[in-house]
Amino acid sequence: MAVYRFRVTFEDNEEVYREIEIKSVQNFEDFHNIIVQCIGFDNLHDASFFISDDLWRKGDEIGLRPLSEDDVEKLKRRDLPVKKQMNKCKLASMIDDPHQKFVYVYDPKAAWTFMVELVKILLDDPKGTFPKVTKTFGESPKQHIVSNIPPPVDEDEFDEDEPHADDDAYVNAHAEDETALLEGEEGEDDAEEEAHDDEEMHDDDAHEEVSGDED
After folding, report:
1. In a domain, 193, yes or no
2. Is residue 92 part of a domain?
3. How far apart are alpha carbons 85 and 66 in whole angstroms?
4. Strands 84-85 and 58-63: what pairing?
5. Domain boundary pick from 103, 122, 137
6. Whole-Å CA distances, 70 to 2, 19, 74, 75, 82
7. Residue 178: which domain range?
8. How many domains are there within the chain?
9. How many angstroms separate the CA atoms of 83 and 72, rounded?
10. Judging by DSSP bridges, how do beta strands 101-106 and 112-123 pair with one another?
11. Residue 151 within a domain
12. Which residues of the chain are modeled with pLDDT < 50?
């Protein structure tokens, strides 16, 4: 039994890579899981290995998720190869070259692509735990880009100079307006009462003067 040491390199940046050791009897799903783990991706998407030549041209596919029966029949009718399934395919069965190459693609929509090359074949270590990462070089790119830029504010809906309805300033200002309004209404009522009293007093004085003249 042998142990394979692979170098996994980012397609867009060859200076960022990971070296992984995995047993020849382990399968491609084990290899997939350790790759995703060591680069910090979420492992929620589909993925595939492609057998590659020295020019990194893709050949037969080894997929993470099984094909449906309909998809298998369509490929057979078109005389196209049916991709193998990772958890049913051991690494040793796909290694024909001491420098065997694979292209690994994670998340077909985002198309994260890695070049995987066998760099050394080692004797099995019965006490070792595999697969394992033996070398890390460079920082992995972020799978998800998070923007810290706040969303734009509609100037028609919000005015910084005007207090918001939830602000204390807004509440206090409106309370003062209501108080002033109530005081104004009370003042108007008092003025009306005073004017009415003055009219009654004036009428009484006039009546007394008329009575005095008759005497």
Report:
1. yes
2. yes
3. 6
4. parallel
5. 137
6. 38, 38, 6, 9, 12
7. 162-215
8. 2
9. 9
10. antiparallel
11. no
12. 158, 181, 206-207, 210, 214-215
The confidence score (pLDDT) of residue 70 equals: 87
Instruction: Please list, in sequence order, all residues whose beta carbon lies within 8 angstroms of the beta carbon of residue 18, skipping any fewer than 6 positions away.
Output: 7, 8, 35, 38, 39, 133, 135, 136, 137
Q: Which of 153, 86, 125, 141 is nearest to 5 (CA)?
A: 125
The mean pLDDT value of the chain amounts to 80
Output the domain CATH number for residue 90: 3.10.290.30
pLDDT of amino acid 32: 98
CA dihedral for 59, 60, 66, 71, sign (positive or negative): positive
Task: Quote the pTM value.
Answer: 0.65
Q: What are the angstrom distances between the C-alpha of 196 and each of 32, 170, 201, 204?
A: 96, 39, 9, 13
